[in-house]
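Predict the assembly for these two chains.
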Amino acid sequence: MSSDGNLLEVRNLRTYFDTDDGVVKAVDGVSFELKRGQTLGIVGESGSGKSVTNLSIIRLIPEPPGKIVSGEVIFNGSDLMLVSNEAIRKIRGRRIAMIFQDPMTSLNPFMKISRQLMEMTQLHLGHTKAQARAHAIRMLETVGIPDAHTRADNYPHEFSGGMRQRVMIAMALSCEPELLIADEPTTALDVTIQAQILELIKKLKRETGTSVILITHDLGVVAGMTDHVIVMYAGKIFEQAPTRELFARPGNPYTKGLLRSVPDPTAEQGKLYQIPGLPPDVAHLKPGCPFAPRCERVEEICRREFPPFVQLNAEHYSLCHFAREVYSESGGTPA
Amino acid sequence: MSALLSIKDLKVYFDLGGGGPLDRLFNANSVKRVVKAVDGVSLDIQERETLGLVGESGCGKSTLARAILRLIEPTDGRVFYRDQDLAHLSQRQLREQRRHLQIIFQDPYASLNPRMTIGQIVGEPLETFRLARGREAEQRVQELLETVGLSKRFVKRYPHEFSGGQRQRIGIARALAVDPDFIVADEPISALDVSIQAQIMNLLEKLRREKNLTYLFISHDLRAIRHVSDRVAVMYLGKLVEIAEAKTIYDEPLMPYTKALISAVPVPDPQVEAGRQRIMLEGDVPSPINPPAGCRFHTRCPYAIDACKEVVPQLVEIKPEHFAACIRISPAQPHIEDVAPGTAPGL
């Protein structure tokens, strides 16, 4: 563990994909830290690089076409980019666990839930069959599966979407990982079920002290769940700040636009603010700021020069030529 | 305002079999299994209104929409569109009416034929309904593309060349091709990125104003529903449980289910989120196969009493223009918080 309590430090991560269309810089120079016990939200639209960032951390990038071109991922003091394949396999599932958007595709449809859960602890913790089964049932109870004893012997298709996601969470947490990466864990679920699952993740986090990286496109979910937020766009971090700070005083035009384009139920109806244009084609980025073609305060320099990553105060950064001005307009005082 | 569409006691049942003599031969306990996807829905959709329909997956909202357009055959009930009962028209008569009633689908990737060009996709309805041909049709397709914010240069391109938001615009252009009065938008923004959702909502709103359209806007996203709708109907397990103006539904919901639904929506404001008390619903939505008797929500409702398990609640006008289906509230006693807590909560 590093001196300042960081569980994870990602430095200058670059993951590129070779495609027929050219090199896609899916993640291009991403750096962040995650303190123990904290939750980091990564927000972005599709293609922003949020999922690739996390797949890179645990080295699950299909190679080829993908390649982690550079970067360090310091997890508990050791660089995951340098450890052997064998070592990273032991870390995955055991110390870093992941849950994905669609639980049906991450569960084996031909295996009983119990066996899939037991596999985890038999492999990673050396449980005997009996220990593993007892543990599996305990985990299913923890995540709120009623009648866990019987339900353990059901197949994935016999569960509802919400229940399947609970099973996934049980599986992810069964080896008490230090880091849980949740990639859009509630996107496929109904709102009332989403509320249950988010509450469950919060509760388990409190009880186990697991650190969480929560990837989502829903700013509402980020607001309620995270301590820090990273906003990604075109493979870059556009803004990074403590959650409250980011929502109260955004320092980047893209973040501002995103926040304004979510309908506010307390406001009057009328035209909703919209960010014009489309997300960029990351295979063909022009020089300058990738958001420039859609930005409402774009100036000539934005089209010419790549923007600097400006520090606005202790923990708040924004990738923008006019970060200080945007921050001031939001009511912030740049340091 | 008058009703453009008037739905009377519409039912859509799916027979899953079971319970027949042969079934009982193999399994003595076999019972007939019926999914009551839509079970007696009555609803008026006013001309030029956007009626929002919300509910969780499996509640029957998409089935209801499809039954209105007869993309699924209703089991029973009537759907009046300008004095014609769509539910009982012959196929030929129905085809003529279909022109006026269109649908936009959720998945912009699955709803466009990948082997057709954009020009063919948007132009096909013109041909089907013999509205335009040749040069005139081409012209019309170009206009339609521009109406939905796409370049007319796209006519020769194929769907895979477009992003989700652009495909949704193509779907909208196709729906508009026949100059409809009424459009069902079935989760039109759910598959799109946040910045694109706002664009599509604004586009639909603009089109509604310009072309005097009437929408049935289906979504599970309450924030979007609140934003686009004039009135909102809440559906649970095949039945409508509450209808009111969008603002009223959001600010002063009457039904315990609607309250829980609204309280589950995450608000993009960390301070609000930190201080929020959620009404958590226990458990999942019950299976629509042989659903609970009485009020279908009684298995999850904290206010349920014994009578809720037996009496099927009807939609009652509890407050002016505000209908709810709950036997525990009435015009005299509209607030569920004021009634005694449940004596027989289902769980």
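Chain A is about 35% helix and 25% strand. Chain A has a mean pLDDT of 90.
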